[in-house]
Structure formats: structure tokens, C-alpha cells
Write a structure and sequence with these properties.
Layout (H helix, E strand, L loop, with lengths): L1 H12 L6 E10 L11 E2 L1 E14 L4 E6 L8 E4 L13 H12 L8 E7 L9 H17 L5 H14 L8 H7 L5 E6 L4 E6 L5 E7 L7 H20 L12 H7 L6 H25 L3 H17 L6 H11 L4 E7 L6 E7 L3 H16 L4 E5 L6 E2 L1
Parallel strand pairs: 4-6
Antiparallel strand pairs: 1-3, 1-13, 2-7, 3-6, 4-5, 7-8, 9-11, 9-12, 10-11
Helix pairs in contact: 2-3, 2-4, 3-4, 3-5, 4-5, 6-8, 8-9, 10-11
Bound molecules: alpha-D-galactopyranose.
Length: 387
């Protein structure tokens, strides 16, 4: 990949003097969905697929961006003076947002950059290509300008930029999973205080399979923000009767005892998901640590049901992928992953069942939905690095 990056960089920008090459992963969340903005736990891991980058510092304050995934757009030019939260779409808003966020946090970027990116995360799959670009950009700035920031800071700066530059009110999970990724480990993160531990993902004879629904997200982001405010309202109602900071502070029993404080049936379902999903995540990590993969898979399935029935973020595409997966012998667990409303599912599949899984689920999906799903057998990888 390094050679391809350098060769293309030379073709696009004339030469490769002063160029360095980088990588930041994508992520998949194993369990703990829509808990990260509710002070709950998540359990994601970084992948070996992600975003590659080549970059160098310029002598002026110009910014030049080129993506090998959007070659038809050519080089997109901007400047360090033009970094303002933008409403218009476009992939350069992610790197620009991170540069803006660094400056907002008091890190002055002295010179512009020539940047080339190349991602191998399937497009729109919900494996966090945007957070991958954010963390990669932060890592590049740190490497070139010597900013004193930890990988955890890179995650927080990435989230800050996505919230305030791109207008998506996301939690910390994606950026954290990417910035803090560790090969063959998932991250058990408590989003209430950012304390975390790594848990080995020992999957003897089992692989992680991603199924991408290829459904375009559309209204996804506004629905995401809607779920977030529903949870905030439910929390405000619960706070009148019980002393908590977030829905993640409640056990299932405490929730059941106090749920009548929530005055709307839909909001009560949203809050129920947030509480139960957080507890499920804690139980799932315990099961994995005890090497009880069957129990882990069962909790993944329950997570999907809760996201489908109580949180209502799945849709026919994700439900079809998961419900077809459940029918197959050798599938340990299957659920939607990420924000939902499209994107992808994650399944734990026994080695000998992978071909059947891909054929059967793929065929049923095409028959019911009318277009194809894509399948990827993925591996758990490290966080950002210089190549
Ligand atoms: C998106 C957000 C994350 C998280 C998930 C749902 O991926 O970026 O912060 O909220 O959705 O778990």
C-alpha cells in the first residue's frame, strides 16, 4: 500500500519530497449500541481495514486534499484561514473539521499540508470511515507539528470536530475505538468516565463477519440526533425520582422501579434499551472473559432485538440480514452494529459455516430486498500508525 500511496501522491502533487505515510483503522462494535451518549458501556474493536494517508507540510498556509476514493473530484483546495464549520457536504469537512478543532483547542497549525487519502473500508458501511479519517488527520498533525496529544486526546478532538464542525451529535465510541485500537483485543469502555480495559477476542475457530446492507443512510443522521434527545428527555424525567447522571447508572431493576416517571411510552422504550443494553454489554464482556462464547452470542442476539423493537433503529434491511443469519447452524451471534438505519451487521460465525452463511444470507437478502449485500471477514487490528 505504501508504494501505491507514494506513486499516486507523486502523480497528483508532482513529487514526493518530504512525504510520510500513515494508517488509521475502521471499527466494529461487538455490543453496547447507542449507549455511548447515555453514560453506558461499549465494546468495540479496531479493524485491519481503514484509511491510508500520505501527507507533507507545505511552505504556505494552503490545504490540498485528494482522495483516491473520489478521484473524479481531483485536488480540493482550501486554506488554514478558511476553516469554518460548514453546512455543505463533502469528505474534506472531516479533515478540515479536525484542523479546526485543534486550533479551537489552542494548537496553532503553522503551515498548510498536501494530503492524499485512500480508504478500504466499504463505502457507507457503518464501519466508521469518517472517524477513521478524523483520527488519521489528528495523527498526521501530531506527527508533523509535534503537538503534545495522546491517542485518547485524538479521539476527543475527533468527536469534538464531528459534533461542532460537522453537526453530528455522535458519542465517543468510534473515535475512541480507532485511536485506542489494539490487535486481537476489544475495548471495554465506560463512556461515563472514559475508563477502559482491553479484553482479548480469542475466537478459536470463529470469525467476525461483517454484512453490509448497502442501504444508503439518508435520514440516518437526523434520526440519530432524535434518539439522542429522546434519551435526554427520559433522563430528565427519571432524575426527578432517582439520583443518576446518565441512563447507564441504572440497573434493570432500578429502571423497572422508576420507569413510570417517563411520561411517554416511546421515550420509555428508548430509555429501556439504553439501560438494558448497557447491562448486556457488562454481562457480555464477563462471558467473553469466562470463554463462554455461546453466552456472548446470545447477548448479541438480544441486543439486536432490543435495537429492533425498543430503540427502532434497524429497518427491514438489517433485520433481514440478522434474522437470516440466526437461521444458520454455526452462527454464534448476529446483530446490527453502529448507528443503524442501514450500514452493517456483525456476526460471529464458525469457520466451517462461513461459506454457507455468505451464500444463504446473501441469497435471501437479494430476494427480499432487491439488491445485494456485501460480506467481509475481518480481523481486529491496532490503532493509528506511521507506515
Ligand atoms: C454511531 C456514533 C457512535 C455511537 C453509535 C451507536 O456510530 O458515531 O458514537 O453512538 O452510532 O452505538
Amino acid at each position: 500500500m505504501k508504494e501505491t500511496l507514494l506513486k499516486t501522491f507523486g502523480e497528483v502533487y508532482g513529487d514526493t519530497e518530504g512525504v510520510k505515510t500513515f494508517f488509521a483503522p475502521g471499527r466494529v462494535n461487538l455490543i453496547g449500541e447507542h449507549t455511548d451518549y447515555n453514560g453506558g458501556h461499549v465494546f468495540p474493536c479496531a479493524l485491519t481495514i481503514g484509511t491510508y494517508g500520505a501527507a507533507r507540510v507545505r511552505k504556505d498556509r494552503k490545504l490540498c486534499f485528494y482522495s483516491m476514493n473520489f478521484e473524479h473530484l481531483g485536488v480540493i483546495e482550501s486554506g488554514l484561514e478558511d476553516l469554518k464549520p460548514a453546512k455543505e457536504a463533502g469528505w474534506t469537512n472531516y479533515p478540515k473539521g479536525v484542523m479546526w478543532a485543534f486550533e479551537e483547542k489552542g494548537y496553532q497549525i503553522p503551515f498548510g499540508l498536501d494530503i492524499l487519502l485512500c480508504g478500504n473500508i466499504p463505502n457507507g458501511s457503518g464501519l466508521s470511515s469518517s472517524a477513521s479519517v478524523e483520527v488519521l488527520t489528528g495523527y498526521i498533525l501530531k506527527e508533523f507539528f509535534g503537538f503534545d496529544v495522546s491517542n485518547q486526546d485524538l479521539a476527543l478532538i475527533g468527536q469534538f470536530s464531528e459534533n461542532n464542525f460537522n453537526g453530528v451529535n455522535c458519542g465517543i465510541m468510534d473515535q475512541f475505538a480507532i485511536a485506542m485500537g489494539k490487535k486481537d483485543h476489544a475495548i471495554f469502555l465506560d463512556t461515563a468516565d472514559l475508563s477502559y480495559t482491553y479484553a482479548p477476542v480469542k475466537l478459536e475457530g470463529i470469525k467476525l463477519v461483517i454484512a453490509s446492507s448497502n442501504k444508503k443512510r439518508g435520514l440516518g443522521d437526523s434520526k440519530y440526533n432524535e434518539r439522542r434527545s429522546e434519551c435526554e428527555m427520559a433522563l430528565a424525567e427519571l432524575k426527578k425520582v432517582v439520583e443518576i447522571n446518565g441512563l447507564g447508572d441504572l440497573t434493570e431493576e432500578q429502571f423497572e422501579a422508576n420507569k413510570s416517571a417517563i411520561k411517554d411510552i416511546v421515550r420509555a422504550k428508548r430509555a429501556k434499551h439504553a439501560v438494558y443494553e448497557n447491562q448486556r454489554t457488562i454481562k457480555a464482556v464477563r462471558a467473553l472473559e469466562a470463554n463462554d462464547i455461546a453466552q456472548f452470542g446470545q447477548l448479541m442476539n438480544e441486543s439486536h432485538i432490543s435495537l429492533r423493537d425498543d430503540y427502532e433503529v434497524t429497518g427491514v434491511e438489517l433485520d433481514t440480514l440478522v434474522e437470516e443469519a440466526w437461521k444458520i447452524d454455526g452462527v454464534v451471534g448476529s446483530r446490527m452494529t453502529g448507528a443503524g438505519f442501514g450500514g452493517c451487521t456483525v456476526s460471529l460465525v464458525k469457520d466451517e459455516a462461513i461459506d454457507t452463511f455468505i451464500n444463504k444470507v446473501g441469497e435471501a437478502y437479494r430476494r427480499k430486498i432487491g439488491y445485494k449485500a456485501d460480506f467481509y471477514v475481518v480481523e481486529v487490528g491496532d490503532g493509528p500508525c506511521t507506515l
